[in-house]
């Protein structure tokens, strides 16, 4: 029994739409899984940025101490001279 042109056209349309829906489902599932992985990584990134900020403050404080020591060293060299 021959299929009607309308049935053939409807079947082709379902074949075209079905992979699109399946690929969207796979992408959505993949995006969800990536977001699950991304969340702890973003927390780690935030914590590292805090550590980086604290280290930059320490670095700044050490540069001030270094400057003060150089002044003291200069004054001692004058006294010693």
Summed over residues and divided by their number, the pLDDT gives a mean of 84
Specify the helix fraction band.
over 70%
Task: Find the count of extended strands (DSSP E, 2+ residues).
Answer: 0
Structural class determined from secondary elements: mainly alpha
Secondary-structure element string: H
Number of contiguous helices: 1
Instruction: Using the CA coordinates, give the radius of gyration.
Output: 34 Å
> End-to-end distance, in Å?
115 Å
Q: How would a textbook summarize the main sheet?
A: none
Strand content: under 5%
Low-pLDDT residue intervals, each spanning 5 or more residues: none
**Multimeric state:** single chain
Overall form: rod-shaped
Written account of the structure:
The chain has 81 residues and is mainly α. The chain has 1 helix and no strands. The chain has one helix spanning 5-80. The termini are far apart.
Produce the secondary structure layout.
Layout: H1 5-80
Quick summary:
The protein is mainly α and 81 residues long. The protein has one helix at 5-80.
Characteristic key phrases:
81 residues; mainly alpha; 0% strand; rod-shaped
């Amino acid at each position: 029994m021959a299929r009607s042109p309308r049935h053939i056209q409807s079947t082709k349309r379902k074949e075209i739409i079905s992979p699109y829906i399946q690929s969207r489902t796979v992408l959505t599932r993949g995006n969800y899984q990536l977001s699950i992985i991304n969340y702890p990584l973003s927390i780690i990134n935030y914590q590292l940025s805090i550590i980086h900020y604290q280290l930059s403050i320490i670095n700044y404080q050490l540069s001030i101490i270094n400057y003060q020591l150089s002044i003291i060293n200069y004054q001692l060299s004058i006294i010693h001279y």
